[in-house]
Amino acid sequence: MKYKRIFGIVLDSVGTGAAPDAAKFGDVGSDTLGHVGEYYAGKLAIPNLQKLGIANLRDQPIQGVAPVDAPLGYYGKMQEVSAGKDSMDGHWEMMGLPVDHALSLFPNGFPQDLLDKITEFSGRKCIVNTPYSGTDVIHDYGEEQMQSGDLIVYTSGDSVFQIAAHEDVIPLAELYKICEYTRGLVNEPPYVIGRVIARPYVGPDKDHFTRTANRRDFTLEPTGKTDLDRLSEANIDVIGIGKINDIFSGHGIKTGYHNESNMDGMDHVMTVMDQDFTGFAFTNLVDFDAMYGHRRNPKGFGQALMDFDQRLGEVMANMKDDDLLMLTADHGNDPGFKGTDHTREFVPLLAYSPSFTQTGQSLGTRSPFSDFGATVLDNFGLQSGAGSSFLAELK
């Protein structure tokens, strides 16, 4: 069957167990869903994900979330082939553009010549310049930044250049301008960085600082054509919800919605469901990652999953027979694991349509992530640059 509308939702960082190459990333033993389930000790209530087969796709159980005898959807998992485990790598690979070469990492901070250029451009000094938790760095240096007007510069285990500043000290427009300039410095060797991220925060003091939804990602321009471009060139509607527009630098996207939160993102999904269009609505829900994974907060992560599950029920109830829903993730970010970085994991793959007549079938382990985008393209009669469609398996 061919579908008029496909809704792809990426549960950012909701991994489902260490990938075969996890040792390369120091992530052996990571399992985002498994460890969240352990934390909740049998009280993790995600009935809609459960009905779709979230527990059926796993080799190890999720405590309190049993496999079901007859899943409503098709289930499986995907294994990444890209060189990194960042959101950019995962999303690009999903859309037919695996990242073959590792991006620049800075475990000891950024080179001084790069910081000097930013200072010359902005008139502001760069402080910190080391890998740091985003919430910890504003706690430890936010008051200094408010007094000096400097830029808090930090990174992580991923290829990211993050700049934090208090919104009352450095206006958003200025912060974005500095980040845009920085983006232009790190697009080619010797420094090729996946994302420059503006990290504004507010609050009166270190015990009350909070990061705001005015975050903005300045992502490396796609290095080739993506499946979003292929859809757009064929006059198929492409709608980006959440940070999708940032990740693809707007390429191939007809309409974009900025999310304030997961729930705001789901509001946008429901809004789009009420629209008459033919095409692909691609959503990223980042709170799992930004709010709970990086902060190693399994309680908040689990609650976000349960909140999403309730909204998932609304989506399923409002789907038309010629709608297809596909759920996945871009990487792991295990809140029960060491460190504060993303984790190299398998990601879930769930597919559902009210028109399915033969459900409860496994899609197996798909690799690369590009099988996701190839399926979308196949539905609209297009060929992917990478990956194999599983559209014919959905019946």
Automatic annotation (TrEMBL):
Pathway: Carbohydrate degradation; 2-deoxy-D-ribose 1-phosphate degradation; D-glyceraldehyde 3-phosphate and acetaldehyde from 2-deoxy-alpha-D-ribose 1-phosphate: step 1/2. InterPro entries: Alkaline_phosphatase_core_sf (IPR017850), DeoB (IPR010045), Metalloenzyme (IPR006124), Phosphopentomutase_DeoB_cap_sf (IPR024052). SUPFAM superfamilies: Alkaline phosphatase-like, DeoB insert domain-like. Its cofactor is Mn(2+). It is an enzyme of class 5 (isomerase). Mn(2+) 1 binds at residues 12, 330-331. It is found in: Cytoplasm. GO terms for biological process: 2-deoxyribose 1-phosphate catabolic process; 5-phosphoribose 1-diphosphate biosynthetic process; metabolic compound salvage; nucleotide metabolic process. It catalyses: alpha-D-ribose 1-phosphate = D-ribose 5-phosphate; 2-deoxy-alpha-D-ribose 1-phosphate = 2-deoxy-D-ribose 5-phosphate. One of its GO terms (molecular function) is manganese ion binding. Keywords: Cytoplasm, Isomerase, Manganese, Metal-binding. Binds 2 manganese ions. Its EC number is 5.4.2.7. Belongs to the phosphopentomutase family. PANTHER family: PHOSPHOPENTOMUTASE. This is Phosphopentomutase. The lineage of its organism: Bacteria, Bacillati, Bacillota, Bacilli, Lactobacillales.
